[in-house]
Amino acid sequence: MAGHSKWKNIQHRKGRQDAAKGKIFTKLSKEIFAAVRSAGDDPTTNTRLRLAIAKAKDANMPNDNIDRTIKKASGDTEGVSYEELTYEGYGPGGAAVMVEVLTDNKNRSAAEVRLAFNKNGGNLGENGCVSFLFERKGFLILDREKAGISEDELMLAVIEAGADELESSENEFEVMTAPDEFESVKSALEEQGFTFLNAEVTQMPQTYAELARADAENMIKLIDMLEDNDDVQNVYHNFELMEEHYEN
Nearest-CA neighbor of 48 among 73, 16, 80? Predict the structure, then answer.
């Protein structure tokens, strides 16, 4: 595949999460809690909960933490209510940014998200200003070397599994699916012995923005500041991360 690897954007986020397990566990617990409150505590019938549990396990969240959160959400917990919000805006250089928030205080979250944009050369926009640039997709990444098969062989496997698209970069295979097909495709590939560097339902940018070095540095600061916020669940952007952006 010519051009960038979509996995680089995911790697940046996962690297940040790995450096702060306590913070990511807090966010995962909130997602599990909200999923239970929205559709019950049975993951076989609650797709959102099933995906939240899978995401928690991928992050090595202990089973006791997961079970405790589900039980807490299933009980008569008074005074705990999370509101789901999405903020949209532009980062430095005009890159599109979407921020998914799960909060018990929307005024606090709005102020903190706005501050992150303003402090790092971006600006918060109106709902819908950038969401049309993204498409919700299932996204699975395989290490090219560990996959142990050619791109053509894998193409047949992912088509048979029901995936929409396969792309390849130097080190990875990137599999895209419809959101509703994500779990079945993942299971089908796992049954064939494949393991994943990453597997999630996410918002995929349809176009990418290349930024000048100064804007790229501020964009990374904006992403990091947003992801450091306990209320922020996900940050999506169309900034094309390159290796040189990590150089000191």
Answer: 73
